[in-house]
C-alpha cells in the first residue's frame, strides 16, 4: 500500500452537518476499500484564487491515507460525481513527503499541547511619582 494525500474543496453553501457528512463519506470509502486513514485536517472556508463554478470560496479538507494504487481511480470518480465537491487533487507521497508530513504533524501537535506562557505580574507595578521640575526662564542676552 502506498501513502496518498488528497485535498478536496467543497461548495461553500454546505452547512457544517453536510460538510461532516461529505467527509464521513470519503473516509468510509477509503476504509471500506482496504485503506487506512493516517491523518485528517479541516482547513475551513477559504477564498479561492479564481472562481470555480461561479463560486469564490470553498471548504478545504485534507485526508492523508494509505491505499492500493488501483483505488485512487475509484476515489476520484466519486469526487467527480459528487455535486458538493468543486475541486480535488490526490497525490502519491514519496518517502521524503511522508517524513515531512509526519514532522509537520508532530510540530503542530507540540505547539497545540504547549501551554501558552502568559506572563502576569504578581502585583501591579508601583508608579513612580515624577517630581515636577520648576521651569526656569532662560535669560536672553
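Q: What amino acid sequence fits the structure above?
A:
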Amino acid at each position: 500500500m502506498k501513502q496518498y494525500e488528497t485535498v478536496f474543496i467543497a461548495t461553500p453553501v454546505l452547512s457544517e452537518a453536510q460538510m461532516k457528512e461529505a467527509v464521513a463519506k470519503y473516509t468510509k470509502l477509503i476504509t471500506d476499500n482496504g485503506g487506512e486513514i493516517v491523518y485528517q485536517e479541516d482547513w475551513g472556508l477559504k477564498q479561492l484564487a479564481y472562481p470555480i463554478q461561479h463560486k469564490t470560496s470553498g471548504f478545504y479538507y485534507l485526508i492523508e491515507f494509505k491505499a492500493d494504487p488501483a483505488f485512487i481511480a475509484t476515489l476520484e470518480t466519486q469526487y467527480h460525481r459528487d455535486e458538493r465537491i468543486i475541486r480535488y487533487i490526490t497525490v502519491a507521497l514519496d518517502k521524503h513527503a511522508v517524513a515531512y508530513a509526519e514532522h509537520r504533524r508532530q510540530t503542530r501537535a507540540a505547539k497545540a499541547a504547549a501551554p501558552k506562557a502568559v506572563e502576569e505580574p504578581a502585583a501591579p507595578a508601583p508608579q513612580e511619582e515624577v517630581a515636577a521640575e520648576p521651569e526656569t526662564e532662560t535669560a536672553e542676552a
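Q: And what stands out in the fold?
A: The first strand starts at residue 2 and ends at 10.
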